[in-house]
Amino acid sequence: MRTLFSAYEKLMDIIYSVIRICIAAALVVMVVVTFVEVIRRYAFGLSFIWSEELVRFLLVATSFLGGAAAYRAKALALLDLVTSRLNHATQKIIDMIVTIMIIGVCGYLSVQGYAYSFSPQIANMLSTGLDLQMTYVYLTIPIGFTLIILFGIEHLAQTLFFAPDESVGELKEKEG
Questions:
Q1: Cα atoms found within 13 Å of the Cα of residue 119, Cβ hemisphere only
Q2: Confidence bin at 166 (pLDDT 50/70/90)
């Protein structure tokens, strides 16, 4: 079981790293395009027709991918006013219930998001400035939810099979 989870954890590490690189690249592109647009607009009275649209699409993508990355890093807001006063076993049960609920809601949103993204009204639509098929733009939303599901499964397995804040990698270091 540990070797299977270790492989899954390594895969999630790779996915998490790729997400962070994509978010960083998107943020750099957004800043550069916005800066160039401000200079072009105010200094020369010119504007790229696609720039605002690109920044908007990248903002949506970074929001949903960033949400998934923040979920894995446990960097989302957490209200633990009540749960912090409970014993460890009860906290673990509540954490598992909340994680299962998150997986369920994100599963529903993923299914609906994929269905909507590939629906004919979206698949046949092109963005005005970039001339990009809108399916690609809309897909960032269910992909973000799918990543939260994958990270939720990892968190659920960690909660069930390992001590708090202990991963397979940390167990190998202790054993070795």
A1: 10
A2: low
